[in-house]
Design a protein that fits this description.
Shape: globular
Distance between the termini: 25 Å
Order of helices and strands: EHEEEHHHEHEEE
Oligomer: single chain
CATH topology of the largest domain: Double Stranded RNA Binding Domain
Number of domains: 2
Radius of gyration: 19 Å
CATH class of the largest domain: Alpha Beta
Helix content: 25-40%
Largest sheet: 4 strands, mixed
Length: 181
């Protein structure tokens, strides 16, 4: 895996970087050698946020945690990523190295098999909506999203002509999803 460790408003020490390699290294047997790992540490008001994004074979795993200490936040993020992989292990095994996820769980059995929260879910579409997609500016799309009280809104971008999605982030700001060429 290829690592990119970034510090925002904080200088990262070598021992933290080594801890990142050690903690995330246990996922190396699941992902290919070309997998990209981006670790971003942000310091805001004495709270440290660690965000980890792993990209491999068109799949994206992301987790974020905030704590007083960056090491604690890193531990929480690794646990979240492990939980995401555990929960979707059968579906993910089709996308990543064959049998790597099964071997990962055979070596790291820290989860109680009776834990109902980790049961595999079937992805079941219970409702389908269709609606016209009008050309809008990004600001108009955000306004429309807020007026209907949703967390996201799909629209045709008036500038680019592409289908885009605006969404409300946890911190109250907005995000925009655009298709990649």
């Amino acid at each position: 895996m290829k690592y990119n460790i970034v510090g925002r408003k904080v200088n990262l020490r070598d021992n933290f970087k080594e801890r990142v390699y050690k903690k995330l290294g246990k996922f190396e047997k699941i992902f290919s050698d070309d997998a990209e790992v981006v670790v971003t540490v942000t310091l805001e008001k004495n709270r440290q946020t660690v965000e980890v994004t792993i990209r491999d074979n068109g799949m994206l795993l992301r987790a974020e945690s905030t704590a007083l200490e960056m090491n604690d936040a890193l531990d929480a993020v690794v646990d979240i990523l492990g939980g995401q992989i555990r929960k979707n292990k059968t579906k993910l095994s089709k996308r990543f190295k064959p049998d790597s996820i099964s071997r990962y769980f055979a070596e790291d059995m820290t989860v109680d098999e009776d834990d109902y929260s980790l049961e595999e879910e079937d992805y079941k579409v219970v409702r389908t909506k269709t609606f016209s997609v009008k050309p809008l500016s990004i600001e108009e799309a955000i306004l429309q999203m807020n007026m209907i009280g949703h967390e996201f809104f799909m629209f045709r971008n008036a500038k680019s002509g592409e289908i885009n999605v605006v969404y409300k982030r946890k911190n109250g700001t907005y995000g925009l999803l655009e298709p990649e060429a």
